Amino acid sequence: MEKILPGLYRIVVPLPGNPLKEINSYVFTSDDRNLIIDTGMNRPACKQVLEPGLEELGVDLEKTDFFVTHLHADHQGMVAGLMREGSRAYMGEDDAYRLKAGTTPHARRSPMGDYAAKSGFPNEELQSAMVNHPGFKYGPESVVDYLIARDGEVFTVGDYNLEVVSTPGHTLSHLCLYERDKKIFFSGDHVLGDITPNIQNWSDENDPLDLYIKSLKKVYDMDVTLCLPGHRSFIKDFKKRILELLEHHRLRANEVIDILEKETLTAYWTASKMTWDIVAKSWDDFPVMQKWFATAEAISHLIYLENKGLIQREVKDGLVFFSSDGKEKLQTV
Ligand SMILES: [Zn+2]
C-alpha cells in the first residue's frame, strides 16, 4: 500500500503467471464515502493482497463505491466479492452490457470463437484459449448490477472531483477519470507506461484501433502532470507517452502491410509473423493465450487498414485472408 496524495492510495495487486504482472488498484478514502478504482481478478493471489490493504486503510466497505475502467477480469473480477448492501459500482455502458450478457468466451460457439475460427485460429488451440481465457477463469463470483457512468459525469470523493472521460479503444466503452485541478489522470488501460495496451478485435463491425487512436488524441491536450495507469509505473510525461503509442501503432500497421505484401494470410498467420515483446523462441512456443491476444491485436490492425483501403480481403473455404499490393503505407495515424 502506498500513499500518493492525501486520501489517495495505490494497492499493487499481483497477477501471478500473467505477463501484465500486477494491477494498480486506486483507493480514495474520505469521512463520507470511499471509492475504489479497479480491483484485480477473482483469485486468491489478488484477494490476499487487496483485502488486507483495504483493512490497513480502514476502508469500511459498507461506505465504499467502485469505479471500473473496463470489463476485463483483472479490473473487475473482485468487485462482486467486495460489494456490500450500500455499495454502488460503475462501468461504461457497452462493457457493462457485454459483461452481463456473458459475451466473454464461455463456449466454442460464441461469436468471438466463430470469428477466431474464420481468422485461422486452429481448432485445438481455440478450445484451449476458451478454457484458459482470464475472463472465464477469473471473472466475478456473481453478477454485479453496474450503474452506467458517462462521459463528463463527475464523481466527488473527499477533496477530489473526478470527471469521467470516455476513451473507447482498449474496450468499446473504456473510461478514464480526470482530476482537473490536481492535474491527475487515471488512465485504466488506455495509456500505459511500460507496456502498450492490447487493442483487440473479434468482429468486422467495430474498428477499435481507429477508436483507440481517436481516444489518444482526445486526451492529448489535457493538462496532466501525473498519469496513474492500470498497470505498472506512474507516467510523468503524459504527452510524450501518447505520441509514442500513436507512433507504435503506425509502425505496427506498416509492419502488417509489409507482411501482407509478401504473402496472403489469415489474421492468425499474420500475427505469427509480427514482432512481439514476449520471451518465446518462436510462434510455436507462444502460450496459447498469448497467441489469442496476438491474433486479436493483428485483427484490430487488419480491420483498421482495410477500412483505410490499404489492404484487401478475400474469403476462401470459410477462412478470411488479407493481402496488400504494398504501394501505399500509413503516413500518419
Ligand atoms: Zn484491459
Description:
The protein is of the alpha/beta class and 333 residues long. The chain has a domain at 2-110 and 134-243: Metallo-beta-lactamase, Chain A (4-Layer Sandwich), CATH 3.60.15.10. The protein contains 11 helices and 14 strands. The chain has helices at 44-56, 73-76, 79-82, 93-101, 111-118, 123-132, 134-137, 208-220, 238-262, 267-273, 288-307, and strands at residues 2-5, 8-14, 22-28, 34-37, 64-67, 89-91, 147-148, 154-157, 160-166, 175-179, 184-188, 226-229, 312-316, 319-323. The strands form 3 sheets. The protein has a 7-stranded mixed beta sheet. It has a 5-stranded mixed beta sheet with strand order 8-9-10-11-12, with no helix packed on it. A hairpin with a 2-residue loop joins strand 13 and strand 14. Helix 8 (208-220) runs antiparallel to helix 9 (238-262), helix 9 (238-262) crosses helix 11 (288-307) and helix 10 (267-273) packs across helix 11. The relative contact order is 0.12. The model is unreliable at 104-108 (pLDDT under 50). The structure holds zinc ion. Zinc ion (ZN) binds next to loops.
Q: Key terms for this structure?
A:
333 residues, alpha/beta, Metallo-beta-lactamase, Chain A, seven-stranded mixed sheet, five-stranded mixed sheet, 11 helices, binds zinc ion
